Amino acid sequence: MALFSSKSEGMMGIDISSTGIKLVEIDKVRSGYELKSLAVVPLPRDAIVENTIIDSMAVSQALLDAIEVARPSTRNAAIAVSGNAVIIKTVPIATATEFELETQIEYEADQHVPYDIDDVYLDFQIQGESAEDPGSMDVVLVACKREVVEDYQLVLSEAGITAKCVDCAVFALENSAELTDEHSVIDTAAQVLPDEDAEVHALINIGANLININVLINGQMAFVRDQFYGGQNLTEEIQKEHGISYQAAEQMKLENFSGVNPEAIERFYVGLTSELVRSLDFYSANHAEFPVQKLLLSGGCSLIPGIATELEQRLGIEATVLRPFPSIQASSRKFDADYLDKIGPMLMMPIGLAMRGFDS
Ligand SMILES: Nc1ncnc2c1ncn2[C@@H]1O[C@H](COP(=O)(O)OP(=O)(O)OP(=O)(O)O)[C@@H](O)[C@H]1O
Ligand SMILES: [Mg+2]
Question: CATH topology for 181-322?
Fold first, then answer.
């Protein structure tokens, strides 16, 4: 499911986020996928704030730089939206004919989307029979403000790129997570039943200022939430602790935290844990019978040494960092294997977007 998507031969996945642009192009090969091109280009700190493009010139320029570095074979892209502009809701809808379903969905969207329906892109997907409301179908509704999508399309078109697919960040993550051994592909037709065998995974992407959470029961989305917290908070803690500039603090962080007072890191973890607990509590309030068994981490903050162990201890739930390579093959002539291995968890989002080009 995507907010909109026009069928396209090959697309690159572009993650336009607060710290930079991540461009990934993959190919389908007999044994799975292969990395074709890659670029990670930083953005100035105020170019995108809380998911809103502030400096469109800087973003377009970074996109052009990414194209120059990656030299992709296409100018078609899949991008993602997340944060406050996106509304994702699962609603039970009494089984109806296709026509009735359409009217019913419009009605539900009107109830759940706090914007004028004409001002949003709307999509839906039928998940299957509702566990809570037998006789009804669970339908996932997705809406995103048109102006947000259009802002992204504009910066892309200034860099000669066409957005063929606009996805939700949490769905893109679901896609790439399925490639990894930690989140094996589950038959999505499987019913959600109160079953001790159910597999309950929380995909948690922690970026610089946004956490995208997606809890899946047997591969079916059960809860999604975006929260504003992330690596930026850690950099700010280091900045305060050592009385240095944001840039200097960021650098200390990226240079393996050398010289960083552990108290700054502790404060970040306290904040992060309380954000995650808040979301997981929300989830459990409606799904007490399906406790989360595993946290699957991605995003730049998953590169913080030891983060999985920290979260495991603080939340009491097993945690692992998702690594897309070597599930995705990469030629060692074109790419540095150590570099890919290191930044892989941060590329889960653009990889999930690039996979949209192969959706059947
Ligand atoms: N090796 C590392 N160690 C610690 N933190 C890191 C490392 N590499 C990146 N980060 C942090 O990860 C964050 C960037 O992650 P990511 O690229 O996922 O964010 P983003 O997608 O640009 O941001 P957002 O989605 O929140 O707008 C930054 O805060 C950065 O400092
Ligand atoms: Mg991001």
Answer: Nucleotidyltransferase; domain 5 (3.30.420)
